[in-house]
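Standup notes, structure subgroup. Blocker cleared on the flavin-adenine dinucleotide input:
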Amino acid sequence: MIVELTVNGEPRVATVPGSVSLLTVLRDELALPGSKNACEQGECGSCSVLFDGELVCACLVMAADCDGSDVVTVEGIGTDEHLHPVQQAMLDAGAVQCGFCTPGFVVAAARLIETNPTPDAGDIREALAGNVCRCTGYGAILRALESLAKGAS
Amino acid sequence: MEIVRPTTLDDALAARDALPGADLLAGGTDLMVEVNFHHREPEHVIALRRVSEIAGWEGRRIGAGVTWTRMEKGPLRALAQLSRTVGSPQIRNAGTIGGNIGTASPAGDGLPYLAALDAEIEVASAGRGVRRLRWDEFLVGVKQTALRPDEIIIAAILPEVMPVAEEFAKVGVRNAMVISTVSACVMRMPDSTWRIALGSVAPTVIRARRAEELLGTTAAPRGSLLAEVADAVAAEVRPITDHRATEAYRRHASGVLVRRLVGRCAA
Ligand SMILES: Cc1cc2nc3c(=O)[nH]c(=O)nc-3n(C[C@H](O)[C@H](O)[C@H](O)COP(=O)(O)OP(=O)(O)OC[C@H]3O[C@@H](n4cnc5c(N)ncnc54)[C@H](O)[C@@H]3O)c2cc1C
Ligand code: FES
Ligand code: FES
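Run returned:
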């Protein structure tokens, strides 16, 4: 099945095999491997993307239902030359260990900062409640975002 | 696999009529887990998220497509409380009340709210039009509903008389992303009667009728009455032992939860 959608601001056409998820199509058909596949059941958040502006797990979106949708992946959040403030803050705080969870955290945190530029510690924890870090590097991730929020206020 | 993406209810019902075996897809947070793990291999899918008639929430009528994120910000206290406990922000942005009702899990967190209110589920088909079933006519067993193969859930219909106080709480192994071990919703009504509903302690969500009777119209139950109510709830529920908790724990937790929530609803 052919699905036409916008990914990171560009119109894309994808061939969707059967009932696969948006995550599979992003990674295998559209050459965007930034979104990670860890659990395929909505538990870990490593596949987080913005879907028509809302933060969701790409592994739970049926790709065949994406015709006409607007998707932003971690590849669309910043560039090598211009990191997103969330990416810079995480770099500065050393908030990356193996890095597998990082794309999901970046997308979720970027969405938080967009909707609430000055979140408090509770807002940050709540916004990231759907993202799991198997290296349990939460302390540095939270510190990165708290310092970013402090800088903005 | 074929997918139909209707934008009107009429088109959705016509598709449902033409493809009675099709899987309905709303937020996908239950369906896609089954698909990803090959527990379900849909041949035909009817995607409902573009159907505007089921996406709205007006007063007593909550469209099937309304997400937890919207209910979390809505005016109904216990509904907002329970919505806030569902999954994670990602899950709440996608998951809908209609999907929760459609899945009919004993642990579905929206269901104790509907049961406590004696809410109705509105369904429709191309052939027979609209019908409404009370929650206990609709939810008939573990993941089993009275939905016919040509029907779609349209909305949850709340009653005209709403509670003066309502509270929800659930017990689970942690704070985020957790399936209820026991959930409870307690309401105090304008006529001073009480409503108590529990999830994860029987094949479907249930009402604790015996405990409701014990409370009668006592506005601020205390001491021995509260203890009696907790005991009645623990005796009334029909939990099982599974990997999440034992039967004994679920009975105990049911009583404790209800006692606390009654305290919070007391005048
Ligand atoms: C990580 C994770 C955490 C979760 N946490 C919770 C939780 O804390 N509490 C909880 O209650 N649930 C939880 N869930 C389960 C799920 O998110 C909810 O049940 C949600 O409400 C399902 O809605 P949906 O729109 O995503 O349904 P879908 O997956 O799209 O559909 C679910 C079922 O309902 C049917 N259906 C959907 N819409 C209709 C309709 N209009 N008419 C008829 N049938 C319909 C579908 O065919 C399917 O069988 C969780 C799921 C995940 C993946
Ligand atoms: S891979 Fe999607 S939430 Fe884990
Ligand atoms: S850095 Fe390894 S999973 Fe988070």
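Discussed briefly. DSSP finds eleven helices and 14 strands in chain B.
Next: hand off to the docking folks.
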